[in-house]
Amino acid sequence: xxxxxxxxxxxxxxxxxxxxxxxxxxxxxxxxxxxxxxxxxxxxxxxxxxxxxxxxxxxxxxxxxxxxxxxxxxxxxxxxxxxxxxxxxxxxxxxxxxxxxxxxxxxxxxxxxxxxxxxxxxxxxxxxxxxxxxxxxxxxxxxxxxxxxxxxxxxxxxxxxxxxxxxxxxxxxxxxxxxxxxxxxxxxxxxxxxxxxxxxxxxxxxxxxxxxxxxxxxxxxxxxxxxxxxxxxxxxxxxxxxxxxxxxxxxxxxxxxxxxxxxxxxxxxxxxxxxxxxxxxxxxxxxxxxxxxxxxxxxxxxxxxxxxxxxxxxxxxxxxxxxxxxxxxxxxxxxxxxxxxxxxxxxxxxxxxxxxxxxxxxxxxxxxxxxxxxxxxxxxxxxxxxxxxxxxxxxxxxxxxxxxxxxxxxxxxxxxxxxxxxxxxxxxxxxxxxxxxxxxxxxxxxxxxxxxxxxxxxxxxxxxxxxxxxxxxxxxxxxxxxxxxxxxxxxxxxxxxxxxxxxxxxxxxxxxxxxxxxxxxxxxxxxxxxxxxxxxxxxxxxxxxxxxxxxxxxxxxxxxxxxxxxxxxxxxxxxxxxxxxxxxxxxxxxxxxxxxxxxxxxxxxx
Length: 606
Known about the structure:
The chain has 20 helices and 25 strands. By secondary structure, the chain is of the alpha/beta class. Strands 18, 19, 20, 21, 22, 23, 24 and 25 form an 8-stranded antiparallel sheet that branches. It has a 6-stranded mixed sheet with strand order 2-6-5-3-4-8, with helices on both faces. It has a 5-stranded mixed sheet with strand order 10-9-11-12-13, with helices on both faces. α5 packs parallel to α6, α5 crosses α8 (202-213) and α12 runs parallel beside α17 (453-468). It starts with 17 loop residues before the first strand and ends with a helix.
């Protein structure tokens, strides 16, 4: 391999030897026209035969042992990039996460980086605690090196926020995070980030996907790891990254608020994921004295052996932490998912029970506390903006408006929040204050451009301390918000529809709903319908344009409420969101039940 003369001295060292990581050497010639190796041009039996001819002997035995139904499930399609890269079950096949799908994706990424002439800027690579995450991360680095692309590979597992921060810190051209977020243990995934530290936006994602599809699954070249390190193509990154991260995020907080109640008792669990070190360090730097780490879930564990699913959105995942909280008398339980980009929490009420908070409730409590403290300190900008996704609570608008900030709405997917931050830095139209999704993802600050579970833990702790100094809990703070702005109730229902039949069913439901005329839901008039696929909003027969990118989403605007239907971009699910506002909690609960009944009946799934 000949390296361009424009590279640094370290890069002009002899290139590391490369090997074929998958399949026989003749595979590269057999599949040199990568388009012939796409699912569109082959049925699942042809795909199966291709893999059978090129995988290792032990893997061949595994494939031969599959039933016909299993063969179809593994080869009828290929993993695609959704709102957060590709994600799938760890298994052989084009519809699974394995060294072949990772290799093909990385080869396409390498092609894309080289085509942009940015190979010396490099790619940052991180990974979480899932099975094969470290292996896939090293493989990614070695394939990039074989293509002359520099990489920065973290020396141990680190969460999404440190990957996003690292892309910006090293001024890299891209980033890769090996993770399946909060999915069950059988899954892993591959997220790609752009040079701004946000998940790859639509245009570059489409360009990269085109290059991936032009690649074979087999015959991908990978450099020897040690030789690539010696050649300066793989740079192993250690504690210096963590120090830089905390230097960037600590100024975001008013530590005087923490000092007002430093003994607040918090139980924290990383749910066997990557959050343990950074979150515990964050609490230490903030000066919190009453933090209790749940030791039983502190160690990384790809089996997530103490939970059914490592998803802090579900109170079941926090059950061990809640039990420990009872023992130590904790005020607050906080959990993060395996890649530490999401945070969930439960708060002790006056009866000593621990009440879980929804993603919307957590976001609104933190937003209210943040804007209140900034206003009190005189640091609230006049052009501040809060960014939310279209399926996040409308309560955000009322809170932001109360403090003179504007609310900006984007499509589901945190990359769209990241795009807005970048836009505001360029135009100066707004100053970014806070962004969040209903799915427990939050970002304070612009050090990263994706959900930051570490900073979210810090902000929730600061908010809890501030309220505790007033003799209040987070639950009290939430009730104050409802008393001021009205009682909002939100809910999400997911219909899991796996496999080829499931994909067809989701498509059928969305097409039918787009054609139907729905005049009321839950006893509330449908004021307008937004069809994001057509980028149209229809009200009283009048059509207006939606400025956001096209997306397979239907949104029903209601009187003091809304409902939305969309396929998940990361899981085989159809998701239904709905929300209402009333003057009391009881009225809101009743109205929400009526709305749920109607919207789910309209969807027609069980």
